[in-house]
Here is the input.
Amino acid sequence: MVGREEKGLFPRDEAVTDSNPTELIQRGRAAARVGRLDEARQFLRHAVELDPDNVDGWLALAGVVDDPEDKIACFERVLALDPDNTQARMSLEMLQPTQGAEQLSPADELEAVIAEASRKLEEAVGPPPPDEVPPDDAEVLYCANHPTVETMLRCNRCGKPICTRCAVQTPVGYRCQECVNRQQAVFYTGGLPDYAIGGVIALVLGGLAAYLMVLLHSWFIALILGPTLGVGIAEAVRLAVRRRRSRYLWAVVAGGFVIGALPALLIGLYSLWALISLGIFLFLAVGAAAARLR
Here is the structure.
């Protein structure tokens, strides 16, 4: 193994000037943890060059080098320093199949090597220590709406960082509220004239229906006719605006319905049953009309 190092098989970047092997190993593991393997290899190679007897350095380096021969060399060095090291021994057994074992096809062998390399990378890197400082230029995302909240989510439409409070789950993934609103706005083709038309129709038809309920003053009839007349008035509004959609048309129609019913409410003051019937009717009819237009 020392011979491999002397021959330059583990070259390092001359820009790495740290002289503390422990610090270099920590920095190498931190770089590997965020996926910067080239940088991790430079730190770890420098660490084992400074301290060739550092078992942790060789194990970490084995997890980030690509060449299976280099991995084997790292694990052999670990066993030379620590013959009872279980991790290195098991890794060598995986990388050096015994004689007479079933030979794998080139594709299967490559897949096995890649899988083992990935597993060793996770083992060598391990979880971050509590006092570890991430690399200076590691990207940290903050929510666009809450600048002090770190996040790993992005809107899958505009790419803006969003936290879990701002994310809206859609059938195609998480999106920010602005993109959701813009997407919904495509379906709203109505304008101010539609609001005026809907309000007038609800005012007139709602007032007539409410007056009829006062005359009948039957809570049972109100229970039956409330939803039916509410849906009917909503359909009349939809036909009048040629089925154009407006975001708040339902609220305008509901308000017009209630305002149109005020004269009937004054007339119904003479009878408690008339007021009860009108209240039941308005509750059901206005609710049905609003639900139909949402």
User: Anything to note?
Assistant: The CA atoms of residues 214 and 274 lie 5 Å apart.
